[in-house]
Amino acid sequence: MATVSSLWSYTLQLPHDPRAPGIARVTLRTVLAAHGLTELTPTAELLASEFLANAHLHTKGSYGLRLSSTEPNGLYVAVWGSDPRLPPGFGDATDAPPEAAADAENGRGLHLVRACADAWGASAPPELAGSEGGKLLWVECQRGDLR
């Protein structure tokens, strides 16, 4: 009889294609449903969508989505790409994010992250340390602590 591990991780490599963020969101919903974490879907999908859209806009090549379980009932969502620049205000949790103009079409992503995620951060993992550099933006969401 096969056993199912309570810890899991999925990685999805995405081409620089305008359909890729949508495919990643469908994958996220499918993974969360398969692992009984559907209550995290709205928050995780919102945050992943923000990161995926930015990766598509600011990365020339492929980018990716990583989903992992966290103990005891959480989710780690990360998006990586080749653009090494951090979004304004993202590098330091004590800095207030810049205010977006009322009619601006961008500039609200960090506000969403800070309002919805239980933890967030950025890093430059070794696998992205090629000639172009790169970054990984991540969030954690916990079951029972939805905002």
TrEMBL record:
Keywords: ATP-binding, Nucleotide-binding. It comes from the Bacteria. The keyword Mitochondrion does not apply. The keyword Acetylation does not apply. One of its GO terms (molecular function) is ATP binding. InterPro entries: Anti-sigma-factor_SerPK, HATPase_C_sf. This is ATP-binding protein. It comes from Streptomyces vastus.
